[in-house]
Specification:
It is a single chain. The protein has one domain (5-139): Alpha-Beta Barrel (nicotinate phosphoribosyltransferase), CATH 3.20.140.10. 43% of the residues lie in helices and 12% in strands. It has helices spanning 16-19, 46-54, 61-75, 82-92, 128-136, 140-163, 169-172, 184-189; strands at 28-32, 40-42, 98-102, 108-110, 114-120. The strands form 2 sheets. It has a 3-stranded antiparallel beta sheet, with helices on one face. It starts with 15 loop residues before the first helix and ends with a helix. The model has no long low-confidence stretch (mean pLDDT 91).
Length: 190
């Protein structure tokens, strides 16, 4: 199983279901830029992550069996929340009961503002929210590349307005780095 979402999380999140207070029904999480080199960020990359990892029938009996074995070997005991995942398979046909809201892709957002929220929509799946955080936080890289590119373009525009033709800027900021990066996703962000 190449796209087993049950394996795509930080290992400590496998035990989150044991750490929430009993009867927790809703978990709400958010993503924000806490700061960096620039006072604002370009939000970009979420749609790709959603379509690649979270759309459709995500959880199956086979993926749960594979993950149960993997996490049991990793921790040396059975820790995965089988009850929740079996419930998702049976009640939701393997679709994830979550709600994700985000600013539109390409939006420039000041630092320390919410870019995206996630929450479970089924009270029996509260720990699903933070379980998915790991995969959703992969958005940091395309946000960084889009933000850096925007800042570079601002510098190029300023210089070209002062010394020449601003219409040439669109050919000044491009990339030949596909062959030198670690993955297709990395190259697509550049």
């Amino acid at each position: 199983m190449d796209n087993n979402i049950l394996l795509k999380t930080d290992s400590y999140k496998i035990s989150h279901h044991q750490q929430y207070p009993p009867n927790t029904t809703t978990v709400f999480a958010y993503l924000e830029s806490r700061g960096g080199d620039y006072p604002e960020q370009v939000f970009f990359g979420l749609q790709y992550i959603l379509k690649k990892h979270l759309v459709g029938q995500i959880v199956t009996k086979e993926s749960l069996e594979q993950a149960t074995q993997f996490w049991k070997e990793h921790f040396d005991y059975d820790i995965i929340d089988k009850k929740m995942w079996e419930y998702i398979i049976e009640k939701h046909n393997g679709y994830l009961p979550i709600r994700i809201k985000a600013v539109p892709e390409g939006t420039v957002v000041p630092t320390k503002n919410v870019l995206m929220t996630i929450e479970n929509t089924d009270p029996k799946c509260a720990s699903l929210t933070t379980f998915l955080e790991t995969i959703l936080l992969q958005v940091w890289y395309p946000i960084t590349i889009a933000t850096n590119s925007r800042e570079i373009k601002k510098i190029l525009l300023k210089g070209s307005k002062r010394t020449g033709d601003p219409s040439l800027v669109k050919t000044q900021l491009h990339d030949f780095g596909f062959r030198g990066v670690s993955s297709y996703e990395t190259s697509a962000s550049k």
